[in-house]
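Lab manual, section 2.4: Encoding a predicted structure.

Procedure: take the sequence of the chain (164 residues), apply the prediction step described in section 2.3, and record the output as structure tokens. A sample record is shown.
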Amino acid sequence: MNALLALLSLVPLLFLGTTTTATSTPPTASHARLDAPPATPGAASRAAPVPVLDVLGLAAVPDGHYLLNLQQGGRERRVNLTVESGRARAGAASDPRLRELAGEFQWIGNGVFLISLANEHHRATQFWVFRPDGTAAVKEIPDRGERQEAVPVEAGVLVRPRPQ
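Recorded output:
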């Protein structure tokens, strides 16, 4: 019993220096806003912590590439969107009819953005609700219960990255 209590007293030491916090820096439109924890001795031997995005301070969708999964009629389609200065344009897509989708984000507040994506074959109006890990839950209007999201990826990627 004493050995168990001694072990439990060491648990807080295992977590020192591994927490991440969001800062209250002015909002910018880049992934550079992701904060990393302070360096600690032995940090190189541990897995990298998940960075934290200051969602409430987010006033623009961070520039970069996002893998967007769209569900329609029981089928899942994937689109690689390039976001730059609040505008999104589709490049690679699993369905050729989704290429060249384009739209402009409107800031709603608290990390929520509205976008209407359209091309000659498809139209979708969506809310993007950003999460602290940099991904966004995507809700279409009307919402039919689809499980859609946008995940930061490299250009042209159509496969969802494995969680770290």
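Check your result against the sample. Residues 1-164 form a domain with the Lipocalin fold (CATH 2.40.128).
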